[in-house]
Write a structure and sequence with these properties.
InterPro entries: AA-Vitamin_Transporters (IPR050638), EamA_dom (IPR000620), EmrE-like (IPR037185). With 279 residues, the chain is mainly alpha-helical. The chain is built from 13 helices and no strands. α4 runs antiparallel to α8 and α6 runs antiparallel to α11. It is globular, with a radius of gyration of 18 Å.
Length: 279
Amino acid sequence: MKNKNMAVPAALASMICVQGGASLAKRLFPTLGAIGTSTLRIGLSAIILFLINRPNLFSFTKKQWLYCFIYGLGIAAMNLIFYLAIQKIPLGLGVTIEFVGPLFLALVLSRKLLDILWAMLACAGILLIVPWGSGTIDTLGLFLAFLAGAFWALYIVMGGKVSKVMDSKDAVSTGMLIAAAFIIPFAIWDGQLTKITPLLFAQGLGVAILSSALPFSLDMVALKRLPAKTFSILTSLQPAFAALSGLIFLQERLTGFQWLSIACVVMASIGTTVFSRKH
């Protein structure tokens, strides 16, 4: 029971780490760009997790390798595309739009009417936060945030599957290695990593720890003990954490109407979590 009760705190701690790391990462964009920063994050995270967990790669079955491959692809695409998105739009807005992926997944997996009502409330919040027709938000940034959300849903599904067929530490370590292998060619093409200095490397290491090494490990703890549906809607707290992080660290201010829309998403998350625990 004690291990089961750690699932929700682990998911919340993961979100705090991710959004704090995203704020730090965005400070690196002017020098390294979104691709360079994402590669530094994924690459260093892969090295850290591999050295700590030391997975025995030669002991994996074909099924385990397949799941790790798809899981790693989801990690690489989710992170790279999301960084490209928040390079163009505010962090809080980007995370809220990205949440359409987990939200859609939650709707697909819902079996009770109340689950659908909570998900629809979160959907209303997402629709309200987008400044439709204002012309002040980069359209490509919005599209990239939606696309990142699709890979976020893939990450949730495969994280749940891979954690059932192998040790969670081995899964997340191997997934990060595969993600690094996917993203490195983009960094070579981009060429921004040649601008790395010792200070930028240290900042990138902080991003790697906060945004990947810690949260992906914490996610595995949560995904192993929570249904994908519950985890999906629980992560709707991400927009609130992102908006606060953007405000505190990046001075990115949202309107009162946009904060209200984030509140809708958070209320949906709380309602779903309470209902899931109750039943």
